[in-house]
Amino acid sequence: MNVIKVENLSKYFGEVHAVDEVNFSVNKGEIFGFLGPNGAGKTTTFRMMTGVLKPTNGQIKIFEKNVWKDPIPIKQIIGNVPEMANVYPDLTGMQNLTLIGELYGVPKKINKERAEKLLKQFELFEKRNFKTRKYSKGMKQRLLLCMALMNDPIILFLDEPIVGLDVQSAKIIKQLLKEYNQNGTTIFLTTHDMEVANELCDRIAIINKGKIVSLDTPENLKKLFQEFQEIDISFNQDINKEEFEKLSSIKKVQKVKDGFSVIVYEVNLAIIQITDFAKTNKLEIKRLNTHQPRLEEVFLKIIERGS
Ligand SMILES: Nc1ncnc2c1ncn2[C@@H]1O[C@H](COP(=O)(O)OP(=O)(O)OP(=O)(O)O)[C@@H](O)[C@H]1O
Ligand SMILES: [Mg+2]
Questions:
Q1: pTM of the model
Q2: How confident is the model at residue 228 (pLDDT cuts 50, 70, 90)?
């Protein structure tokens, strides 16, 4: 079941087609990543989806309701951490949270309990009575997440939630996003960081120059590019490179310092064939390492192909 449906969504700023005829849906209970380089159109899409920026064309439906026709009930059930979000610097961490809770109409007792629970979860409880102008960037970002969770949202929207944070804050945030997701929260996040997308997301849409160029699971995105699968091998003596290259699973063999870098069509079959090749030619394999394609390489390749 999908909870978000984006249809033919476009945003033009004069000549700039920041978002251009974008279509995708987000399933209930998934972490959906919107991945792309700087200026790709992530934030523009995000702002249209969260009811902040009016689309030029197309529509966004959340639980079948059009975000732009009926924004208030939707804003009640989503949590939102925009790209340039800010906490109130003259209020304490606790006050920031209870204020947001009041704005959402959370009953007083629940409001305080929820704020305390979130502060504990995000490891800010000890600093709850400090004014947030004294918070570090990572602490502020954690507090922004707490603020977005004060209305107990069904869907959480995060624009670059981990960019530029200290290791500890990034770790806490990633861990809690996984936990909230396991407990049923659907998450839509944008990122330009491959590793974040790979670690957190069930599915990833890759956006470049306002268009989606690919949409799949991280695993399938990697599989798409089998040609990046490499085997690094060396034998105990010289081999006949031409004969070696004739193996059906091998695409290309390159001589490297003390062995060969082999680009293959299919890793498992290649390993079997290489072992046979070694046996037949009375060779000993000194080293054999497989190299999985890094998502970064896949990403660049998809973008090259899509533009
Ligand atoms: N308010 C605006 N007015 C004019 N152009 C804009 C506006 N907002 C965004 N753009 C342009 O739209 C394009 C997409 O920008 P957007 O902020 O959506 O990218 P992004 O993928 O979020 O990038 P980043 O990774 O840097 O956050 C860019 O070319 C940007 O300059
Ligand atoms: Mg952005």
A1: 0.83
A2: low
| 28, 157, 195, 219, 303 from 201: Cα distances, Å | 13, 13, 10, 10, 19
For residue 11, name the pLDDT band (cuts at 50, 70, 90): very high
CA angle 198, 200, 201 (to 5 degrees): 75
Distance separating alpha carbons of residues 149 and 142, to the nearest angstrom:
11
Amino acid occupying residue 107: P
Q: What's the rounded Cα separation, in Å, for the pair 66 and 223?
A: 36
Cα–Cα distance for residue pair 195/97, rounded to 1 Å: 30
Of all protein residues, the one whose alpha carbon is nearest to atom 1 of ligand 1 is 13
Domain segments of the chain as ranges: 2-223, 230-291
Residue 109 CA to ligand 2 centre (angstroms): 37
Which ligand has the shortest distance to the CA of 47?
1
Residue 202, class by beta-carbon neighbours within 10 Å (0-12 exposed, 13-18 middle, 19+ buried)? Answer: middle
CATH 3.30.565.10 is the classification of domain 2-223 = no
Assign residue 113 a region (left: φ > 0; alpha: ψ between -120 and 50; beta: otherwise): alpha
Q: How confident is the model at residue 277 (pLDDT cuts 50, 70, 90)?
A: very high
Which residue puts its alpha carbon closest to atom 31 of ligand 1?
Answer: 39
* Nearest protein Cα to ligand 1, atom 27: 38
